[in-house]
Write a structure and sequence with these properties.
The chain is α/β, with parallel strands linked by helices and about 210 residues long. Helix content is about 60%, strand content about 10%. The protein has seven helices and five strands; from the N terminus they run βαβαβαβαβααα. The protein is globular.
């Protein structure tokens, strides 16, 4: 039987942790933490496949915990999604490492929404990892590492764009759309480079 992926849920509200656990436990192994310091410690101990991190927590808030996770060599590649009671605004995320998260999830959420967001992260991680191995074997490790960085950034930006657009207030939608158009152009540039690396693999295989 395939081993269940581990998800660490960090939230200082025990009822939220319990709700998330019940939503996920049939599909995943769920680990609980109730403040930022415990979340970091359990991440080090358990090496989860995904971290769901509440923003407002005692001892270390979600953003500080995220910074600590992403600066740790053992943990930096674990995807992190933030949990928030309200949609994030530009003021909320000013000077915050929002580029390090996969997406954010606004509470309250239902099981279908939560599972869909989690499955998207895992499926695209798996696709990227398979292609990474192909590029590494056929082209080289340096190109494979570049590909993985590009694809992770593309996927992260794509998810965040969807979340931002969905949560934007009506009066901000046009400015948000303008920002998104700019982000999409950046994503397209990264995507073209990723496709070039994928094409290299196909060419090498034809030569064999």
């Amino acid at each position: 039987m395939m081993k269940k992926k581990k998800i660490l849920i960090a939230d200082d509200e025990p009822e939220i942790v319990d709700i998330v656990r019940r939503m996920l436990e049939s599909e995943y192994e769920v680990i609980a933490a109730y403040d930022g310091e415990e979340a970091y410690r359990k991440a080090k101990e358990e090496k989860p496949d995904l971290i769901l991190l509440d923003i407002l927590m005692p001892k270390m808030d979600g953003w500080e915990t995220l910074k600590k996770i992403k600066s740790d060599e053992e943990l930096k590649n674990i995807p992190v999604s933030m949990l928030t009671a309200l949609p994030l605004t530009p003021d909320d995320t000013k000077d915050k490492p929002v580029d390090k998260i996969e997406n954010y999830i606004v509470k309250p959420f239902n099981r279908t929404t939560l599972l869909k967001k989690i499955q998207d992260i895992f499926e695209r991680e798996e696709e990227a990892r398979k292609t990474y191995e192909e590029i590494k074997n056929e082209v080289g490790e340096e190109e494979a590492e570049e590909y993985l960085r590009l694809v992770k950034a593309i996927n992260r930006h794509r998810r965040l764009i969807g979340v931002i657009l969905d949560s934007a207030a009506e009066e901000y939608k046009q400015s948000v759309r303008n920002l998104i158009l700019s982000q999409k152009r950046l994503i397209e540039t990264m995507k073209q480079r990723a496709e070039e690396l994928e094409k290299l693999v196909k060419e090498r295989k034809k030569e064999e």
